Amino acid sequence: MIISSVRSQLIHESNRLNSGYFLNKDAINSRLLEENSDKCVQLKKLAEVWNPPIFKRQFCENTEKAIQYCQSSDIPNTLEGNNVYINKEQALKVKAIVKDRQILVTGFGTIGNTRLVNEISAGICYANNVCRVDVSSNSFYGFVYAFLTSKYGKSQLNKNASGSVVRYIEASGIRKTLVPVFSTKLTEKIHNLIVKSSKLRVEGNILLTDAQNSLKNSTGLKPLKKENFEYFGHHSSDRAVSTFTRNISEITSISINAFNYSKRIEEVINAVKMNHHTELVNCLDSNKFFSTGSFKRVAINSNKSIKLLNQSDIFNFRKTGKLISRRYVSTENFVRYGEILVAGVGTLGEGETFSRVIFANEELDGQLVAGEFIRMRTKDEIPSGYLFSWLSSDYGFRMIRSTQTGTKLCRPIPALLKDIPVPILDRAVMNEIDESVKKAHTMLYQALLKEEEAIALVEKEIEQWQK
């Protein structure tokens, strides 16, 4: 039960008597700034806040006339970009392409998720329900980002949002957000932490890309094109229909799904096997493929609870998870540093997480993940960072997806998954790729810590205003 006193003036101004309106978390956080409005300034005084107009999205293949397209649900992602493309001319016409140092705010569904655009994500098109915040040149954009990401910024956005089933807020409501005015020294410190965090994210993403490029260069494999694999995506007049025949002797008792017998994927596998290679199962320790398993989940919010991560947020930069009781959870199920996790359930949409791979860095070490993940630990002979780089590449991703079974919710077939070929390179090359992958994920973890430090400074300073 939440008990608190509210000034009669607030009740009179709002014409509301129901306690839930005044005592929910967002209202309480927002009221602290509203009662100290003399120490704040509205966001519209610091930045231009706007939404692009609604436009018809014309999805297409990745060509010189296309541009990456991200939805509001992509805002929290750790990595930059998406595999979905729309017509570039459309995006340019409505000015939906984001710029470096721009702050993006989700205004639809989950309100208040934020993203600071960097040099990698600049030039990507985002949906019109993602609000753009262009901080003026004489203000600290890192500080504004840290505040909007804090609980005090997010609470104001949610309090001012409209709708019941699906909530939304547009630029006109976001402009009213009260931003605290701190000392120049503290503001600059918070800003610099966010700048360093953004730089680490960029460097981490670049290292991961370089590691995959090094792997492909060492194997002589070229980037896959759409005609090299089967996929579910947009319809196009020039998209060739995939047809093939198989001898009945090639069909096994494992599956009768045509997707599992694709001749396009067979050619991809044969190209990989031109190198010295081994099967995926031979790269793993005695546990082979395993999962966390099932256990009773009792939601509890206390110091003795544990955070459970599932597929809906493990790919996010900030992993919120769900707090549950430790009582029914075995410590043997906790993730270890260097583990490789595959999102083991989902749909075949190009933007979906199904079959995508996670490397367990310092943030995930000791965490609890849902049983839907396929987990792997490598042998000493196979560096875990190297195997992650291979499985997260376009080759690894498409081969994992080719093992799927199911209709609405798909899962990999373990008997097919274990036979995925893994190139075996010179040990020095594999170690170099492994080191790059681990360094990149450490950078992403450090970026999170710096961002959390900046947010903590914001919240600590505001909390001192309580009377």
UniProtKB/TrEMBL annotation:
Keyword entries, A-Z: DNA-binding, Endonuclease, Hydrolase, Nuclease, Restriction system
Entry's Gene Ontology BP terms: DNA restriction-modification system
GO MF terms, alphabetically ordered: DNA binding; endonuclease activity
Family annotation (SUPFAM superfamilies): DNA methylase specificity domain
InterPro entries: Restrct_endonuc_typeI_TRD_sf, Type-I_RS_S_subunit
Keyword Nuclease applies: yes
DNA-binding listed as a keyword: yes
NCBIfam families: antiphage_MADS5
Entry protein name: Restriction endonuclease subunit S
Species the sequence originates in: Flagellimonas aequoris
Lineage of the organism: Bacteria, Pseudomonadati, Bacteroidota, Flavobacteriia, Flavobacteriales
